[in-house]
Amino acid sequence: MNTKLIFSIAKALMLARWKQTLVAAVGVVFSITMFVTLLGFMNGLNDLLDSLILNRTPHIRLYNEIKPTKIQPIDKDPNYKSSHNFVESVKPNGGRLEIYNNAAIMSTLKKDKRILGISPKIAAQVFYNVGAIDMTGTISGIDVEAENRLFKFSEYVVGGNYIDLKNVPNSIILGKVAAEKMLAEIGDVIQVTSAKGERMQLKVVGYFQSGLQDIDKVQSYASISTAQKILGKTNNYITDIQIKLNDITKAPEIAKEFSEIFEVDAVDIQTANAQFETGSDIRSLISYAVGITLLIVAGFGIYNILNMMIFEKMDSIAILKATGFSGKEVQKVFILIALSIGIVGGLFGLLFGFVFSFIIDNLPFNTAAIPTVTTFPVNYDLKFYLIGTLFSIITTYLAGYFPAKKASKIDPVIIIRGK
Amino acid sequence: MSEIVLQAKNIEKSFHDPITIKVLNEINFSINKGEFVSVIGKSGCGKSTLLYILSTMDTDYDGELLIDQISMKNKKEAELAKVRNEKIGFVFQFHYLLNEFSVLKNVMLPGLKLGKYSAKEVEFRAMEKLKILGIENEALKMPNQLSGGQKQRVAIARALINDPLIIMGDEPTGNLDKKNSQIVFDVFKELAIEEKQTLLIVTHDGEFAQKSDRIIEMEDGKIIRQ
């Protein structure tokens, strides 16, 4: 009953000053719109940039690092077991890049429920021979199908058909920039030299473009068997096992576990790409800061308008109090006005924010660096809409609270006697 | 002896700014049910100050105030608001109608606040009160469409809506011309006689006061005649 009465009083006061109310509401609409649009756009960009790395980066990579052996022969000698053994000028021992017993490891990994998929890889250092000039490069030997399934390989192949890499023997997909330098067309045959000096002729079946210039200059792809031939290795030679997990956040602990079980080096994505996380976080932080600033400004607008309204309505407040409304109830009236402005403005803000996001999402955005993207990226995460709603309610409540408190403290005697 | 509705016991009040001045001194009186009492005195004698204390809006005083035999000392703000809503009707010099609401809604507001009757019943009662005051035809107009005398009558109707124990008026005719003053006085008189309504009216209109049942005259914060 009383609530209904307070609602009707709040409504009447708002309607009596509907222009001011509208201005206050428009302020909230604007800030929520910008908040939602800005966050959606920023996070869309974040996702895009992250996906540049995340899509193609294994969650865990198993490999053998070139490093000096920790346990030197002297340590194994029972006579010197309890002593401190100093060995100077220790050098790493070569030829250990291979993951031993990789077939067994892979079959174990395939049974692991936490793993989405695995893809073996061979990293081979080569020289691309262009006339008299040798250019350094890296050829990754990949399992074409697994690589495509897990790391969207085909999205980065801009010329030719990616599956030819598997079907055409001794084929190569060249980095776009490298191909331009070599003037290599699809169908041409190029020559590479391995680090060990072995030469090999490879047929170009496509171009690869990651969007990162430095990578496209050196990186090329071949099938596993081709890579093994380039390196002159047997068909069980694998240097990396790339693992994609169901839950990316578990990568660090699983990496540690595999490293111990399989006695290999394991690096998780969080460690390998820490800088991307930081960049994303900072971009989000900036957009939140801007959005919240907008809301606070809108809050001040509401604060001002309510203060003015209270000043104008002193008489009304006085008589409400004289006829039996308590200070609390007067306060409720004004908080209700502020909240109505906040909630209605907030809802329209969300709506407009969605519309704006949608418009941005459909604006053409063509960049040579990222061939798969044709429009501006936008993230429609419900989270932003919820935060927007929450903040619009909190700021308008605070903006209403202080003027309302003032209204509740108005002494009717002073107002009525003052006439 | 008839029932006492309002009693002041040794009410004293001082203003402290800029220097302490005693504005009310040893105010003792009581009002019985159905009495039409007017309080007169020169400007600044403290009669309005007294009225605001009696109305519970001013709580800064010494002494004791009993409304309906209940002490108003130590009551919380919300409780006092409830007392005002239920037991006191106000008519001020200025009408204090809410321009955002129609005449009818203005009259209804204290009734809706009380919540004793449903909205429909309150509306019916409000119409009755407007009828008593002869302005039922203005019920759906907005207050700014009415004349001064009509507004004051609406204010009286609003004061009556909860069938208060006592109606308090602070110079209710102070802003009105002779004709409208007469109308308002007649309304009060009628209420006193026909409805046995208790009235306490502060005025400096001697003529008005002469026609009431009882006069309390004040001077320099003291009652000199009652």
Question: Your description of this structure?
Answer:
- The complex is a heterodimer of chains A (419) and B (226).
- Chain A has helices at residues 2-16, 18-54, 73-76, 102-111, 144-151, 164-167, 176-182, 213-218, 224-231, 251-262, 269-272, 274-312, 314-322, 327-362, 382-408, 412-417, and strands at 60-63, 115-130, 133-142, 157-160, 171-175, 189-194, 199-208, 219-223, 240-245, 265-268.
- Chain A is of the alpha+beta class.
- Chain A folds into two domains: 2-54 and 276-417, no CATH class; 60-66 and 93-270, no CATH class.
- In chain A, strands 1, 2, 3, 4, 5, 6, 7, 8, 9 and 10 form a ten-stranded mixed sheet that branches.
- In chain A, helix 2 packs across helix 14 and helix 12 packs parallel to helix 15.
- The longest helix of chain A has 39 residues, at 274-312.
- Chain A is elongated and about 105 Å long.
- Chain A starts with a helix and ends with a helix.
- The model of chain A has no long low-confidence stretch (mean pLDDT 85).
- By secondary structure, chain B is an alpha/beta fold.
- Chain B has a single domain (32-62, 72-225), classed as P-loop containing nucleotide triphosphate hydrolases (Rossmann fold, 3-Layer(aba) Sandwich), CATH 3.40.50.300.
- Chain B has seven helices and ten strands.
- Chain B has helices at 47-54, 77-87, 103-114, 119-132, 148-160, 178-194, 206-210; strands spanning 4-15, 21-32, 36-41, 62-67, 70-71, 88-91, 166-170, 198-202, 214-219, 222-225.
- Chain B has a six-stranded mixed sheet with strand order 6-7-8-3-9-10.
- In chain B, helix 3 packs across helix 4 (119-132) and helix 5 packs parallel to helix 6 (178-194).
- Chain B is globular.
